[in-house]
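In the current project phase, our protein records have gained a structure token line. A sample record follows, to show the layout:
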Amino acid sequence: MDKIETRAIIEMLGAPKEHIINTLKEYIAKLQQENKKIKHIEYAEPIEQGKFFSTFAEIEIDFNDMDELLAFCFDSMPSSIEILSPEKLNFDANILTGFLNDLLAKIHQADALIKDASVQKQLLDMNAINILHNFVYYILKEGEKTPEEISRFVGIEPKEIKAFLDVMIKKELIKEDAGKYSITSQT
């Protein structure tokens, strides 16, 4: 099989701006050191996206065979790849089978990471709520407080703390009277 000529886009997101530019250039240089046949590189100017910057490089890169191309796709995870030539590719079924199995393994790995992160987030949320509950309870042990007074202690805006206090009222942990909150006799 003749070489496979491609055009790929490698994107990066990060901060500060200079760091993301240097990281992308270092990554492309690393590809070149690994004997990747990069014929052309074009870097885009970073674009601010909130607290981060995104940038990309468009590269024209040649591969000796389909295995090499697929390995590049898995290792470098370009955001897109276009095969420029040849127009038709022939490869063994075992190459496609290996590619599909690698793809499925990556998808399952990503799914497991997402599920794990979701569980960890739920635990962190529950712990944060418990800490805030205990903090509000401790503050109210000293006596009645307004949402503004509670806000100064916990560092959460009065409007946001009010929603949390309303939940505590529904659970009958605290009570509200004339805009002041206190501990119920049950707690």
Q: What stands out?
A: DSSP finds five helices and seven strands in the chain.
